[in-house]
Task: structure prediction
Amino acid sequence: MANRSYLYSVDTVPELDNPPIPIRAISEHNWSIPLVHKLLAGVEPRVCWSMIWDHEIGIVADFAGGLDLTTRFLRRLADTDAAEHSDLRETVASILEFLAGPQRAGRYFVLETGEILALGGDDFADQVHVVVDSDIPYEVAAATSALAGENEVWLADVRANWSDHIGSFFSDVLYFSFS
Result:
């Protein structure tokens, strides 16, 4: 079994003994928190109660802002005619089609990090704050500069290794799904 990061959409911020209803599955990714999850959870991220773990290690962020940022970035990423990037273009089209489904919309994205943080072995609370205060802002800044026509070296690296960054599983049913 792989450790995964999970992404959901919700209408209220998860709290202890008060989970949001409904919880909509969006994506999961094996062994890391990928760029696409960080961008989707990249607008006004903050730590919240986890819907999976009994700890305050979830990340909640603005849904509309994260979706807009990610949509614009993915379109820029796929804006290449290179034959070797046909799989990238197909994957981006599939992700954008999935995310555009109105049944997936919510007020917030919730990024569940517990399984990935467990790989680090340190204090989960400290690790989730590094993700919120450092990792996510770094990736958002890099993507924003790429959208402005800057940071071409970073964008080329993301294109070259796109499956690591955006090759996540997008589905209405994830390993942790809530009915």
